[in-house]
Specification:
mainly alpha, 2 strands, 2% strand, 237 residues, disordered N terminus, Ferritin
């Protein structure tokens, strides 16, 4: 019976010209060498971004992370308030979605500041990170909007009086107030996030900022439609 050719064994030639097979220690050495090279390549690919410098105290990334946490915090407060009083299932669903999404995003930004070894608060005024020169800053309104509180000069922030009014309202009035207040709040959030997309240095910060732009822009259409269905009026743009 004809047998197929076997693969030749790996051999070496000694000084006397004799063909010898490599010993087990040599084979093990080559296995370790190959494994080590593969491990080094994997580590290099996995940790390719380790050398990137972390954002600094006065960076756009840090300022945005601090201010957007506060901005999200007020949205959570407003959503919690209407959830305590509203009987409208659609308003409750929207408020719960906004609350959970913005809580998660705020936690992400809190974690970044810890990772960067930066404090959660700053002595700089709100929105100071938008005063640096850079693309995307020309359209940013640094002055407080009519609905902004005195101590939080960020676009779209509700005043203490508006928050108190929402807390005291019930039923359809609470639903309308919530929607009316959340529209400028989302508009301000989109404005802030768009500035971070244009000027932040950290890839993760830019990705989150873009996600905020996309999600809150879509929610603005829902907010306006729901407010119109409940008798409005729509807030001035």
């Amino acid at each position: 019976m004809h047998r197929g050719h076997r693969n030749p064994r790996v051999t070496e030639v000694d000084d006397a010209g004799r063909r010898v097979r490599p010993g087990p220690l040599v084979a093990m050495f080559f296995l370790i060498l190959v494994a080590s090279a593969g491990l080094a390549l994997w580590i290099g690919l996995s940790l390719g971004g380790v050398g990137v410098a972390a954002p600094t105290e006065d960076s756009v990334d840090a300022g945005f992370s601090r201010d957007m946490q506060a901005h999200h915090g007020q949205a959570v407060q407003m959503s919690t308030s209407v959830l305590e009083t509203s009987d409208d299932p659609d308003v409750r669903t929207l408020a719960r979605d906004i609350m959970l999404t913005q809580q998660q995003q705020a936690g992400q930004m809190h974690g970044w500041l810890k990772q960067w070894d930066l404090p959660q608060t700053s002595s700089s005024p709100p929105m100071a990170w938008t005063s640096t020169d850079g693309d995307g800053m020309d359209g940013m309104d640094h002055a407080p909007t009519p609905s902004a509180s005195d101590d939080a000069q960020m676009p779209g922030m509700a005043s203490a009086q508006e928050l108190a009014r929402l807390s005291a309202a019930t039923g359809t009035e609470a639903d309308r107030l919530y929607l009316q207040m959340m529209i400028p709040h989302h508009q301000g959030g989109v404005q802030m996030a768009a500035a971070a997309v244009a000027t932040a240095a950290d890839d993760d910060v830019r990705r989150l900022a873009q996600a905020i732009v996309d999600s809150q822009s879509a929610e603005l259409s829902v907010l306006r439609a729901m407010l119109a269905e409940r008798g409005g009026p729509l807030p001035s743009s």
